[in-house]
Specification:
binds glyoxylic acid; 327 residues; alpha/beta; five-stranded parallel sheet; seven-stranded parallel sheet
Length: 327
């Protein structure tokens, strides 16, 4: 039997690569930047499997370029909006992802953004480095208290609930909106389901934890940002296009809302001439919410486990399109 051939689109943690090496002949893209789409089209030809990242565009054209022998496409991420899932399902290709293992790490980062935005951690650091710290200032760097404030969580899945758990320690009033109710989590975290407009009107902090879909594209537009309090702080660790960046610029530059803290942008990476980068009331991190040593190891191993199962013709431990097994 010939050893299966796999392409890995970037250097991932060694623990995952090690596992994949036991099962396949793997080629790893060594450049720190992702392979350009045209290069990827060439690289994937005739592969048995692909291990990819959220920075790769995995569309029908690319699936056809791989060829009908492909057994699995395994993504090292929980989100998969870069992959055309219906096209994969139509071709019988199982798609793997890495849910669960990054929940706490991502919720930690959303919490870090929330605290940093409220208490000017990043602005304070910039101020110090610029040589502006001349004295202790009684009215400098004031921000809202987090303790006792109202937090609105949009999308109450694993990560949204993870944020609720952290907020409990800060005696926050918790509101959430989702397309489904979570009665158990409501009890556990003392969270109240409200309609989106109510959440936006009543929250001091609004944190986004939805998937990116047709329904959530530009969910935070001019109208919704206007519903937020002028003192409101928006946190986004979901996907960039859930927020309309032009509307966010208008809201932040006209004091419609007070501050935003983003881990994700539209597009990614953000362009250096994006007007958002001219503002002082925003923190922009480079999509690093799941970046802990332990979590990235777990994600890489989970992606390898999906890859190996697929190569062995077994059901993926975490498959986003299980319909492929219905046939
Ligand atoms: C990160 O954004 C992920 O989807 O894993």
């Amino acid at each position: 039997m010939t050893t299966p051939r796999v392409f890995v689109t970037r250097l991932i943690p060694e623990k995952g690569l090690d596992m994949a090496r036991q099962a396949a002949d793997i080629e790893v893209w060594q450049d720190p930047l992702p392979p350009p789409y045209e290069t990827l089209l060439q690289k994937v030809k005739g592969l048995d499997a692909l291990l990819c990242l959220l920075t790769d565009q995995i569309d029908a054209n690319l699936m056809d370029a791989i060829g009908p022998q492909v057994k699995v496409i395994s993504q090292m991420a929980v989100g998969f909006d870069n992959i055309d899932i219906p096209a994969a399902t139509a071709r019988g290709i199982p798609i793997g992802n890495t849910p669960g293992v990054l929940t706490d790490t991502t919720a930690d980062f959303a919490w870090a953004l929330l605290m940093s935005a409220a208490r000017h951690v990043v602005d304070g650091d910039k101020f110090t480095r610029a040589g502006n710290w001349k004295t202790w200032g009684p009215i400098d760097f004031l921000g809202p208290d987090v303790t006792g404030a109202t937090l609105g969580i949009v999308g109450f899945g694993r990560i949204g609930q993870g944020l609720a758990k952290r907020a409990q320690g800060f005696d926050m009033r918790l509101l959430y909106f989702d397309t489904q109710r979570y009665p158990e989590a409501e009890q556990k975290y003392g969270a109240q389901f409200v309609e989106m407009d109510t959440l936006l009107r009543e929250s001091d902090f609004v944190s986004l934890h939805t998937v990116l879909s047709k329904e959530t594209y530009h969910l935070m537009d001019d109208a919704r940002l206007k519903l937020m309090k002028p003192s409101g702080i928006l946190i986004n660790t979901s996907r960039g296009p859930v927020v309309d960046p032009a509307a966010l610029y208008r809201a932040l530059s006209s004091d419609t809302i007070a501050y935003a803290a983003l881990d994700v942008t539209d597009p990614e990476p953000i362009k250096m001439d994006d007007p958002l980068l001219t503002l002082d009331n925003i923190i922009i991190a480079p999509h690093i919410a799941s970046a802990s040593f332990q979590t990235r190891d777990k994600m890489a191993m989970m992606a390898a486990a999906n890859l190996i199962a697929g190569l062995n013709g077994e059901r993926l431990p975490n498959c986003v399109n299980p319909q492929v097994y219905d046939k």
